[in-house]
Amino acid sequence: MASDASVLRQYADAVWNEHRPEAVNELFTEDFVRHGPELEGGETVGVAGFLQLAENYLTAFPDLRLDLTGYHGEGDRESVHWIVSGTNTGPLFGGEPTGKRIEFAGVTVVDLRDGRITHEWVAFDTLRFMTQVGLVPAAV
What we know:
6-stranded mixed β-sheet; alpha+beta; 39% strand; 4 helices; 6 strands; 140 residues; Nuclear Transport Factor 2, Chain: A
């Protein structure tokens, strides 16, 4: 079984950097739950729900890249700090592509069971994301 840090790195690399969201079939438990920002609809239940969310982001940002910048592990709870970047060249949240570049930071905390991710909590600066991609106007 892989160490917890390598599970998180495998997750980041396979899903977000190699654009292979189906890798979660091996990395997530069957009862996986993702607690994300309201921008994404909040809670995502199950692997199938996550796959749809990941496909939405990877379609909107075909060059999406997620770089891990910090890691902390304690027992069955792990956390990573990350920076994501990409260019919006596909539809996003029902809107047309803007061609705008994004770069922002976030944090993911996961619970692990038997070396697989069972829960994920994701937090990032959604206002910065929405401003960068052009979903809300920049403050003057």
